[in-house]
Write a structure and sequence with these properties.
Layout (H helix, E strand, L loop, with lengths): L2 E6 L2 E6 L9 H15 L6 E6 L22 H9 L5 E5 L2 E3 L1 H8 L2 E5 L3 E3 L13 H9 L1 H10 L3 E2 H7 L4 E3 L3 H13 L17 H15 L4 H14 L2 H16 L2 H16 L16 E4 L3 H12 L4 E3 L12 E4 L5 H14 L5 E5 L18 E5 L9 E5 L6 H13 L3 E4 L7 H18 L4 H11 L12 H4 L11 H22 L5 H12 L8 H8 L1 H13 L8 H9 L7
Parallel strand pairs: 2-3, 3-4, 4-6, 5-7, 6-9, 10-11, 10-12, 12-13, 13-14, 15-16
Antiparallel strand pairs: 1-2, 7-8, 14-15
Length: 584
């Protein structure tokens, strides 16, 4: 059963056991709703402890129910049932209490947590807002400022901070269940705090809301959900509880079916699938317990730091250094020159065990040439990780024809340990990220050469949602030499099309030639490789959502103006089919 009940004296223990993360599934909602009714009717019960089995409290919604018609009981009704129960409920939190999980906790009269627990309302990261009272109860528990910060950012907070904010009532030591039971019995012997719905709330003035709206809009970069969440929190502060709940529900439903939510859901599922792609099903990865890194380049430093941060033992050394010899994996990040790479990899082949995996870092070119003629070619693989920012989560895996499946699987397993998003590139090609960025750079330069000022390019991409703009600082002098000035003739939307549609056209070609295996892989590379806005879903999602035929027609029009190349055969085939499947 997803929800079970047992008694311990005058306390009832309600346990959710819905692995792996105790998500709020239909069975969980049913079980909790029934538990309230059963325990309210039990005269021997004075209070209820809500706890979860396994490694975490309720970590959010059940992703298998995304996009499906909701089934009763709805989460908001379950939370209300717990909050208005005759017997007070106490939430005992470990792991993470996120989204609907924390909304359930807020329906409880009190909340206790272990010190390493985290709580949060991350709904805005999926293009929606909390839909079961999160925007209404949070300001009543934590105050307006804390509620705005928590909900509009979507970022979780650790237990100590949640305690200071008023979102939980105690941080407990030792075993959670006994500590929670002791807390509940002590609380039942005193006057309990009011349920969240009954707590008073004071609204700041209009100046506060105007200032926060400007701040949230700046951070959101075109995302709708954070600003809509702010408006709902304001409503919660200025009206009664039921009116605010109705407004939250109205806003939640409007956002749930909006394009940004669809885009963000697509990214969410793509990121989950990327860690275990279908090509790796059933393949056991080679073990990686120690990694050697050779080279003094920024890429070498970035890799070594990422490995060290993930708790992977790292050895730095020269290619002929015996200290590298017993590593399970050695990564060459010493040179971009293929001839030099060949020398280094040949030396590593002599230094390391025959079963040591050897990876060579790749910037843009096909890694095949660097390992031509090497011993044990099945152990070689190419890797590309952007090193310009430690925050970038992309790791491109570039196998070769001879690369063994368990070596590729080991790179995917390593990506998970590094908290990176892995993307496998089709054999015989270089970096998808490098190719996308080169095309984008070419379009930036092309726009400047026809008289578009760099500041206009920068502004257009910022409005589209880029946090930082690649190559926006190219010298204004290029525009000064324009041979056919079109300055002022293009709107921001025109500029975005002129910059991005040629990139998408080239991405379609990558699908067609097998460099990219799936459209979502290109989207993940763009999002995690150079900051394409998540709420657009990635370039391939964005083009498909607006309509591939419309995208082709627009690209034809840009080509007629001399602002882009005409769509190639793969883009046209996809437009005719109405999906990217014809390009892959």
């Amino acid at each position: 059963m997803a929800v079970s009940i047992r008694r311990d004296g005058d306390l009832a223990l309600v346990t959710i056991d819905n692995p792996p993360v105790n998500a709020v599934s239909h069975a969980v909602r049913q079980g909790l709703f029934a538990a309230v009714a059963a325990l309210d009717a039990d005269d021997a019960v004075r209070g209820v402890i809500l706890i979860c089995a396994g490694r975490t409290f309720i970590a959010g919604a059940d992703v298998t129910e995304f996009g499906k018609p909701p089934m009763e009981p709805h989460l908001r009704d379950v939370v209300a049932k717990i909050e208005t129960a005759q017997k007070p409920w106490f939430a005992a939190i470990h792991g993470t209490a996120l989204g609907g999980g924390f909304e359930i906790a807020m329906g409880c009269r009190c909340r206790v947590a272990v010190k390493d627990a985290k709580i949060g309302l991350p709904e805005v990261t999926l293009g929606i807002i909390p839909g079961a009272g999160g925007t209404v109860r949070t300001p009543r528990l934590a105050g307006v400022e804390n509620a705005v910060d928590l909900i509009t950012s979507g970022k979780p907070v650790i237990a100590a901070k949640a305690l200071a904010m008023g979102l939980i009532d105690a941080v407990v030591e030792g075993d959670l269940l006994p500590a929670a039971m002791n807390y509940a019995r002590d609380a039942l012997a005193t006057t309990l705090p009011q349920p969240a719905r009954a707590r008073a709330i004071a609204s700041p003035g209009a100046d506060y809301w105007d200032a926060r709206a400007r701040s949230v809009a700046h951070s959101a970069r075109g995302e709708e959900a954070p600003l809509r969440a702010l408006a709902v929190i304001r409503k919660a502060c200025e009206t009664d509880f039921e009116t605010a709940m109705a407004y939250e529900r109205e806003t939640f439903l409007a956002l749930r079916n909006a394009p940004q939510a669809a885009a963000l859901r697509a990214v969410f599922f793509a990121e989950r699938a990327a860690l275990r792609p279908p090509e790796m099903v059933g393949i056991e990865p080679r073990r990686v317990t120690r990694v050697g890194v050779t080279g003094t380049t920024p890429m070498a430093d970035a890799l070594a730091n990422a490995l060290h941060g993930a708790g992977v033992p790292v050895i730095r050394g020269e290619p002929d250094d015996a200290v590298l010899g017993d590593s399970d994996l050695v990564i060459e990040a010493a040179s971009d020159d293929h001839a030099m790479k060949q020398v280094i990899l040949a030396a590593l082949g002599q230094t390391c065990r025959p079963d040591t995996m050897l990876a060579t870092t790749v910037s843009g070119a096909d890694p095949h040439g660097a390992v031509k003629g090497a011993l044990h070619p099945e152990r070689f693989v190419g890797l590309h990780m952007p090193h310009s920012s430690q925050a970038m989560k992309l790791l491109e895996i570039l196998p070769m024809a001879e690369t063994a499946g368990d070596v590729i699987a080991a790179m995917f397993a390593l990506a998970r340990r590094l908290n990176k998003i892995p993307v496998c590139v089709g054999m015989g090609h270089g970096s998808i990220r490098q190719r996308l960025m080169e095309k984008l750079r070419a379009q930036v330069e092309r726009m400047q050469m026809v008289g578009i000022d760099p500041s206009e390019i920068s502004d257009a991409l910022h409005q589209f949602g880029f946090m930082s703009v690649p190559w926006a600082g190219l010298e204004h002098a290029k525009a000064a030499h324009a041979h056919d000035s079109k300055k002022g003739a293009l709107t921001a939307a025109d500029l975005v099309d002129g910059l991005l549609l040629p990139v998408i056209n080239d991405a379609a070609h990558m699908l067609g030639e097998g460099m990219a295996l799936r459209p979502v892989d290109i989207d993940l590379v763009a999002i995690h490789g150079f900051g394409f806005p998540r709420h657009r879903g990635g370039p391939m999602h964005w083009a498909a959502a607006r309509g591939l035929k419309e995208s082709v027609d627009r690209l034809d029009a840009l080509a007629a103006q001399g602002l882009a190349d005409a769509p190639d055969v793969w883009m046209r085939r996809a437009a005719e089919a109405g999906s990217w499947s014809m390009a892959g």
